[in-house]
Amino acid sequence: MTETPAIRCTGLRHTFGETAAVDGVDLEITAGQVFGLLGPNGAGKTTTIRMITTLLPVTEGRIEVFGLDVTRRRMAVRRLIGYVPQQLSADATLTGRENVALFARLFDVPRKQRKHRVAEALEIVGLTGDADRQASGYSGGMIRRLELAQALVSSPRLLILDEPTIGLDPIARSNVWERIEQVRVETGMTVLVTTHYMDEAEQYCDRIALMHRGRIRSLGSPAELEAGLGPESTLDDVFRAVTGDQLEDGGGIRDVRAARRTARRLG
Ligand SMILES: Nc1ncnc2c1ncn2[C@@H]1O[C@H](COP(=O)(O)OP(=O)(O)OP(=O)(O)O)[C@@H](O)[C@H]1O
């Protein structure tokens, strides 16, 4: 018997007025994998994620999360998902522990388990020593790890991260990824992540979908995608072949925006 996939999208579409942000996506994500959704700015990644997390309606097609239809079983689906959006979700005026405790209450973690689960989530992301400091004093990497703890406190089966490492320095980036990897190994959680960083996708993702103009253009493991283009090809080459060089400027602009956003959050 085949295992129910963590996510199955069939003929998925979402339009904003005349714009088809997601334009016929078929996608299956195996439970327990780290799956990377890659694409240039405006490819439709965030729109896809927002439909999976039930935050946007499905205009056309169907999404199932562990076999549950997201349109009909919205609340049940939400209970299965931990979501770290691109925009700020940590409160700088609270301590790290208070931030995570707030999410434990929001996500209905049973009262008796809350203290333990909050401490556990902080431990996983390596923030135990800083848990009782105000988040306003955290670095960008620490804020991102705090947001990860917020998403983990409800013990989700599916963790969805929208550009978790954008705007961070290389050490903070690998630190965030190590925590994600650790949780995956320990819990068997499925992880769906968007990133602009090809090296991260190559190193940490089991499978990748390259998205461009609302459609999936290429799908497979990093090695399969590279081998498909030719010997010595890198994931960057595959990306460029699919999107026509859009990454050259796109990533930079995006990084500047993200760095500004991170600076604002810390300021
Ligand atoms: N609320 C909205 N109203 C109108 N158009 C939108 C809205 N959100 C997204 N779009 C459009 O839908 C398309 C896909 O956007 P989306 O944010 O999903 O892309 P993305 O791949 O996540 O890009 P990025 O890497 O910049 O986050 C773009 O053309 C975008 O301008």
Automatic annotation (TrEMBL):
Cellular component, GO, one term: plasma membrane
Places the protein is found: Cell membrane
InterPro entries (UniProt xref): AAA+_ATPase (IPR003593), ABC_transporter-like_ATP-bd (IPR003439), ABC_transporter-like_CS (IPR017871), ABC_transporter_ATP-binding (IPR050763), P-loop_NTPase (IPR027417)
TM annotation in the entry: none
Record-level Gene Ontology MF annotations: ATP binding; ATP hydrolysis activity
Name recorded for this polypeptide: ATP-binding cassette domain-containing protein
Taxonomy of the source species: Bacteria, Bacillati, Actinomycetota, Actinomycetes, Pseudonocardiales
Membrane topology of the entry: Peripheral membrane protein
Keyword Phosphoprotein set for record: no
Main location: membrane
Lyase among keywords: no
Domain of life the protein comes from: Bacteria
UniProt keyword list: Antibiotic resistance, ATP-binding, Nucleotide-binding, Transport
